[in-house]
Amino acid sequence: MCIFSIFTEGIPLQLVLVRHGLPLRVEQERGRADPPLAELGHLQARQVGARLALERIDAIYSSPLRRAVETAEPLAQALSLRPIIRDDIAEFDRHASQYIPMEQLKVEDYAAWKAFVDGSYGEDVDMQAFSARVADCLEDIIQAHRGERVAVFCHGGVVNVWAANVLGMPVRLFVNVDYASISRFMCASTGERNLLSLNEAGYGAAPDANAN
Question: Check: CATH 1.10.3720.10 for 13-152+160-200?
Fold first, then answer.
């Protein structure tokens, strides 16, 4: 065992999940919608990046989707860290042909928004499989960074299912996760997982923003 491992053995890792900033709206008939950040989203990314740059961040991970990658960029540049892309922390609807921010959907089609927040995520969505995929990926990250603090730029659905897993809740989207918000988890090498904070906002987050 190396000297570093001796000193970090038993020290918990702090897992910092960051939801992406506000993306552009995309509606198309076919193909995968993978929108970049809107102007406000870039501002949110800079703000949350500046906040986290004040902390010791040992590694940065990101979903492969553009909205997550672009949100990670300011922090990565500030700390001279290269984000590690992990496919398994992409959102559950990654192959959808449209992206409509949830606060816009709520105003334009309240019935569709209400159905979503009540648990109608689409016929092709297997939330149990999604939750298992996310948990396996995050556990791999935890094992690779014992005793460190890791920032993971991801999605509202990822934050929800991981938090539900840690809290022992049924798998569902149970909390409105703000754009560019921070959620923290303490993860011990002995297997304990504890929620430190959920949905730390104040970085330019848009109101009423749900998972996605």
Answer: no
